[in-house]
Amino acid sequence: MRSIDNLTVSLTANAEQVIRVIDECGSQIALMVDGSGKLKRVVTDGDIRRAIIKGATLKDKIQPYIDSDFIYVEDGTSQASVLAMMKKHNIHQIPVLHNEKPIGIHVLDDLITDSKPEVEVVIMAGGLGTRLRPLTEECPKPMLKLGGQPILEIIINSLVKEGIPRIHLSVNYLKEVIIDYFGDGSQFGVEIEYLVEEQPLGTAGALTLIDKPEKPILVMNGDVLTRVDYGRLIESHLNSKAHCTVCVRKHVVEVSFGVVEMEGDAISGIIEKPTFEHFVNAGIYVLSPKIVNGLESGKRIDMPEVLSNVMARKQKVHGFPVYEYWLDIGRHGQLAQADKDYTDPTFFKGHNDSI
Q: Could you say which of 145, 175, 184, 292 would form a disulfide bridge with 171 (CB–CB 3.0 to 4.6 Å)?
């Protein structure tokens, strides 16, 4: 049983404060207690992401979005019983209570020895980078540097820190630059296999170059700077039992004019300078091997078409909200912003608070 030191937060805590506790405590959970110390809510990373889908921001109080029902055990419950409850409810943490107050927490990793779920990883690094010319005329976009380090190296380092042993790099445009820099990957602490597109295969076609994958496939674009937690992403995908998982990011559009609503030729309403919120594709996916094995080999296809086909077959596509830092580097302004952000000493601390 682990200590609950630094695990508790008040019922008035906002999402950002709860995320900080979840990240720093190492138990992947936060305990919300009332003024007398009694446990009233249990919050996980998944709860935070579901709250974001419902419209919460990181500055909002999280209590209204969290179910008041939670699983717990009384002090003295046997480990066998705890494990049985974890299996029954598909959870990894269970708080231990005495007189309704938390005194400890059981964590699945402490009770059993189990390896992390294995995944295949594919980074799409073969694009032309047209919008970043002339910088990409002799340098592939994923090799453009932030703080003196190629974007692709930053991505690979973040995956290595997650314990990923092998990465597939899909390459086409100026592929020699990438292959010469990374080689077999040993210098970077990872095994690298290249998926060479003789002809551009789109943002998903290169997946057919993997030899019959049997594990979930984590796919990401080679021009995304992010601090997303890949471990939580994989766990969320497996728990959702979805065929595909798409990382999504809340995007806010501010209209600087009054929006006029029309019914025929009559004006039915005017909304002055409204703000619209949408979830956008963050360019990071997890696909089941069945989906990848069903793609036609050597045929050009983009990821949106793959996802549309999956949904047309009534198969589940799961959305995973990214509240961590995320920036798509597609234009000169975004490249400059990414360089500024990455070289900021606080880049690896805290969370982006734009959600």
A: 175
